[in-house]
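>> received
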Amino acid sequence: MQLAVMSCCNRQWIKRMHTITNDGQFLKVLLDGKFNEKELLVTQKELMSHPEYAFKNSMWIFSNAFQPVLSPTSIDLLIERIKLLFPEVAKKDKAALVSCSNTQNAILQVICSKFDAASVPFKFRAFQDYHEAVSWLTNN
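>> returned
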């Protein structure tokens, strides 16, 4: 189920289209609509604030309607926040990025390469198949 959450930011109402759910085996982030850097950082912060974030792998699902409005600086900010705020006691070791199109997948492949090059404390991998992503997340 996808929920639209409304929040006020600088006196403007922003429609946030993301949900974070506990899927039992991993945390699932569903993204839909037009996202800017600020919205992506809010989503990341909410995920990292989840009580099970340090102990469960995560899956980010990008819907067909997802339209990122990001710069290379945005990705760098995501990387730095992970490196700075990742708990020392964490057991999480994977994050799957699931796309719905070839274009999205190509973008996510580049993002995963940046995360790997930056030596973040867990592995990122892009997928176009949900079941492959689940298998990768749940297998050692």
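>> Confidence is low (pLDDT under 50) at residues 1-14.
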